[in-house]
Amino acid sequence: xxxxxxxxxxxxxxxxxxxxxxxxxxxxxxxxxxxxxxxxxxxxxxxxxxxxxxxxxxxxxxxxxxxxxxxxxxxxxxxxxxxxxxxxxxxxxxxxxxxxxxxxxxx
Length: 107
Known about the structure:
Layout: H1 4-11, H2 14-25, E1 28-29, H3 30-34, H4 41-53, E2 57-62, E3 65-70, H5 72-106
Antiparallel strand pairs: 1-3, 2-3
C-alpha cells in the first residue's frame, strides 16, 4: 500500500519530478525519459523504481522495452493525506468567518 510519505519522498527529488511530469503527459520508455536529463539511463531506471514503489508510475512490457505511464494510486494516497489538512483549514476558516459575522451583528 502506498502512503503519502513515500509519495512525498519520491517527488522530493527534482529528477524524479521531471520523470513523473513526462510520464504524466504520455507513456514513455526509459530511453525517451533519459533524453534531456542530466543522468544516465541506469539512473533513470533507479528513479523509476522509486516512483513505481510510491505508486506514481507503472510499467508494461512492449517487446524488449518497458513503457512507463502515470499511476494515479500514489496521488490518491497523497490527496487523502492532504484532504485531512484542507478540511481542518476550511473548518477553521468557517469558524473565523462566523465569529466575525457575530461580532459585526453586535455592533
